[in-house]
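Sequence only, no structure available. Ideas?
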Amino acid sequence: MNTKYRRAIIGGNWKMNLLPSEIKAYVKKLLPNLPPTRDCEVIICPSFISLGQTISALRGTGVAVAAQNVSEFPSGAYTGEVSAPQLSDIGATHVIVGHSERRIYFGEKDLTVNRKVLTVLEHGMRPIVCIGESGAIRDAGAAEELVSFQLKTALHGVAPQKMRRVAIAYEPVWAIGTGKTATAQQAGDMCAMIRTSIRKIYGARIARSVSILYGGSMNGDNAPELLAQPDIDGGLIGGASLKVEDFCRIISAAIEESAKIYKE
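Reply:
I predicted one. Tokens follow.
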């Protein structure tokens, strides 16, 4: 993490968990336990059905709210889809784009991810772009090539002045729910490669301003080691974000790591 150039981000991706009726209790528990977040942007990512309620509950608290997905189309006859203008209209500020579960379970393609990134930016929100390799790709020695390709495709057509609004989340798919664990060094090395790829496209100044998150089962125990990596600027948290205590431990770890940077 290097907060001299970019802000730490901790996002809680609730996935298809928590009922709308449970939002109020979660927020009521979260806010008193939330560390001061001047140096860390905190984002909650509920399911579509809970977005409005979550936005209302967190209004004025400094905690942002993201959608977990978005349609590539701005409007039209697309039953069951939710558009970027609709998300922006209700107050969502961020959108997760290209999550590994969207790619694996719903067949989302790289070009679709690119169109979603562009529509999110066009409508004033900030995309959190997810990229990452499977175990088979890593075993074949092609992890960096694939992740770099996913990155370049997702960012195609994104103007340099808009890149500061983009966050990247690296998800080692091979280490999520498989019993395998990505070491902090492995995660840090891949995030460093991602930043190098951004530098080649946009230059050094923009590359050092982009926050790169780690999305591989970060929790309160491993967060300090992961966040100590110079190119890991936060986390996209899954299961641990459902428990307020665990989520706040991760946020605290990000703030503590940020404080170390300022002391150096």
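Residues 115 and 136 are 27 Å apart (CA to CA).
Hope that gets you unstuck.
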